[in-house]
Amino acid sequence: MSAVATLKPVLYQNLGKPDSHTLQGYVANGGYQGLKVALEKSPDEVIKLVQDSGLRGRGGAGFPTGLKWSFMPKPGGNGFLCCNFDESEPGTCNNRYLGEYDPHLMLEGCAIACYAIRAPIGFIYIRGEYVPAYQRLAQAIIEAEAAHYIGQNVLGSNFSVQIILHRGAGA
Amino acid sequence: MNSIEGLRGTPRLRPPFPAQAGVYGRPTTVNNAETLCNVPHILKNGVAWYRSMGTEKSPGTKIFSVSGHVNRPGNFEIELGKLTFRELIYDLCGGVPGHRQVKAFHPGGSSAPLLSGDQLDTKIDYESIAAAGSMLGSGGLIVMDDTVDLTWAALNLAKFYHHESCGKCTPCREGSGWMVDLLDHLHHQRGSARDVEMVGQIAKNLMNGKCFCLLGDSLGMSVGSAVQKFPGDFSAHVAQPNMGRT
Predict the structure, then answer these.
(1) Inter-chain contact A80–B109, Cβ cutoff 8 Å?
(2) pLDDT-derived band at A171, boundaries 50, 70, 90
(3) Which fold has domain B150-235?
């Protein structure tokens, strides 16, 4: 039982907190700090950092994320990021709660990734059935754009990113 | 990527890899939503903090969606390499209803090859699960207790994959259909020993990279592992001579 008692959620840490899906709630819980750190670094430094962290893709194949990012051609500027939120494998529903209760976390992740791979546009491909998550993400994008966390000149920097929410049609 | 462009949702031939030519022919990186949700935390708290969790090769945490025969199904975020499946199922998910035994489980979603109940002490991280002969996959732990007939489970799975098959490549489109037919026969006690063999063969010939994308391979791996590990469940369904099979 000891190992279980020491577990601390990271991705799910905001779940269950009041207003975790709003910008206000997310920032109050320390949100968008990572984006600020990223913008102080160069894109290559961000890729290096993610590579050093050893983060592996959670979609199934477990491919090192930083390595994948480093494959993007340089200097770039015309690429895309696709955030795969079309979770539809039988028995898997862990992303859904991230989208519903922490949409800004996903947006921040997309913004940092876009910065690192120098993509001006990021797509979030959301499963068509995830209606509440879609609504919250759509709202989150509006809030984040108004607060300049995404959109033109993020946080007063030269970096601009557009996040497009794309609903799946059952593919 | 095709879906974003408004095309039919079918996989693309690689190369070119998405990083060279992806959406609208431009360089594209595709990441899972959960992966990207890790990134802000890494930037905010640093590499050393992130590496302090998990193992050398599997740092960080992973959210597991536990379903099937457990008393408390749901999503559980756990540090990689820290727990075994036994601890996850019995300590976090409250065990198996009716104190029955775990017969088999998919460690990482339905696509991951089945592990049997005696592999419950496998640690939960990428390497340990791979060493046990399966994969961590998307983190959907499906637990089946000893009341489950794996022919039925395999049939259920095959039906899903048959439905989801996009039809672009033949091994997946036809193979999944044949799989459903054969398993359906077996499930209704109309199959023969040859059918059991055939299911195994299709599983083998579907997998090993013979399909265009991973969907067909996944079905092959899943059902293949079921036939391999629990042949008794399938042969028990072979029709007896006097059971009215013409």
Answers:
(1) no
(2) low
(3) de novo design (two linked rop proteins) (1.20.1440)
